[in-house]
Amino acid sequence: MSQHSTRDLEIFLDIATEAAISAGAIVKNYWGKIEHYEEKGRAGDLVTAADKAAEAAILKVLGRHVPDHGILAEESGTLGGDRREYLWAIDPLDGTTNFAHGYPVAAVSVGLMIRGVPTVGVVYNPFRDELFRAAKGLGATLNRCPIAVSQTEKLARSLLVTGFAYDRRETTDNNYAEFCYLTHLTQGVRRSGAAALDLTDVACGRLDGYWERGIHIWDIVAGIVLVEEAGGKVTAYDGSGIVLESGRILATNGTIHSSLSQALRETPKMRANLKKT
Ligand code: IPD
After folding, report:
1. How far are the Cα atoms of 185, 208, 211, 232 from residue 252, in angstroms, in the given order?
2. Which of 46, 74, 94 to mutate to test the pocket of ligand 1 (most atoms within 8 A of CB)?
3. Which of 158, 234, 262, 276 has CA 20 to 30 A from 241's CA?
4. What domains sit in the chain, N to C, each tagged with a CATH number?
């Protein structure tokens, strides 16, 4: 399949949907039953039995429908298939820390990159039974109804969201200064703890923008397709094309994009000025 017809994309979208819903059912089943979790390497980077079982369910669905495709999965790493132009980026349980603490903000994220380009994305939030779906050129939906980004025009009137990577205690580039500065400039900055949901909330207009550093590819591929197909914009912090491996993402409704990008670039200066006073 080298040219992708609408039908091809719909098939991939249905596969992603089947995978996300089956994983979501498993996540929901584990709710309230997690008594033990492991730390994966960095302090705070957790994995539970729910992450592992949900990932196994996704791998089973992909193995049945697209056994020749590659997979990049949060818990299993890089897997499978020789047709590497198709790479599925999956997070079986985005928001593991929330989940492990009994805070019901988490989702399953299943994205497909074709030759490196995020092309299909499904995010399923089993706690709200919200299914977000998008594919390049086919639009974005929430529970099968079309969605669009917000129309907020000014940064000062915007509500944003961000996150803090697990290496935040090991680096001064930890997003703390950006969080303070943007809190000052906007109507607020939220921190949900689930990047996939941050992106879906931008896609459906609940939030106006999202940025984060140190984010993994599996957290964002599906959400990128959703934001773009809902009429938003996704780039690097400076507005240039996003480099997924850089771990930096800026996603907005489009209209506040350049002012948020400028504020992120101004933050280091603000940090320097604060030191002087
Ligand atoms: C994390 C969440 C969080 C973000 C972290 C991610 P996980 O994913 O998306 O919002 O700030 O950078 O790693 O570990 O819960 O799958």
Report:
1. 16, 6, 8, 6
2. 94
3. 158
4. 6-146 (3.30.540.10), 155-266 (3.40.190.80)
